[in-house]
C-alpha cells in the first residue's frame, strides 16, 4: 500500500493482492470485532476516497435501514470489494472487513456477490 501525505488528507492507493476464492459466491462485510471508531474511519474512506457508490445506504435508500454503522459499513465494504476484483486485500479495510459465504442481503437491500 502506498500512502501519500498531503497537507489536508492521506491518500491510499487502490488495493493490490492475491485473489481469494471461497468456492461459490462470497461477500465482504464488517467484522463484528471491529471498533466503532475503526468502522467509521473505514466507511468514510470507502464512500470517499475509495469512490464507492454509497447512495443505497443514505436516507431513503433500500439499505439505509437498519441505520447502524455495522450495517452501513457492511454494504459499503461489499460494494468496494465487488468493484475491486474480489481480492483479499479489497476486504481488509484496516482489519475491519471480513469475508463470508452467507448472503447478507435482506428485504429490498441486495448485496452484489462474486458470482
UniProtKB/TrEMBL annotation:
Keywords noted in UniProt: Cell membrane, Disulfide bond, Glycoprotein, GPI-anchor, Lipoprotein, Membrane, Signal
Which Pfam families does the UniProt entry name for this protein? X8
Cell compartments where the protein resides: Cell membrane
Q: Would the keyword Signal turn up in this protein's UniProt record?
A: yes
One term under GO cellular component: plasma membrane
State the membrane topology.
Answer: Lipid-anchor; GPI-anchor
Is Ubl conjugation among this UniProt entry's keywords? no
Question: What is the protein named?
Answer: X8 domain-containing protein
UniProt source species: Mikania micrantha (bitter vine)
Amino acid at each position: 500500500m502506498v500512502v501519500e501525505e498531503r497537507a489536508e488528507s492521506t491518500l491510499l492507493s487502490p488495493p493490490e493482492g492475491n485473489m481469494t476464492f471461497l468456492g461459490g459466491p462470497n461477500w465482504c462485510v464488517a467484522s463484528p470485532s471491529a471498533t466503532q471508531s475503526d468502522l467509521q474511519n473505514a466507511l468514510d474512506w470507502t464512500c470517499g476516497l475509495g469512490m464507492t457508490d454509497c447512495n443505497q445506504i443514505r436516507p431513503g435508500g433500500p439499505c439505509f435501514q437498519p441505520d447502524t454503522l455495522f450495517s452501513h459499513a457492511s454494504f459499503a465494504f461489499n460494494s468496494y470489494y465487488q468493484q475491486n476484483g474480489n481480492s483479499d486485500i479489497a476486504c481488509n479495510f484496516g482489519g475491519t472487513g471480513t469475508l463470508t459465504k452467507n448472503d447478507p442481503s435482506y428485504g429490498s437491500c441486495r448485496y452484489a456477490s462474486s458470482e
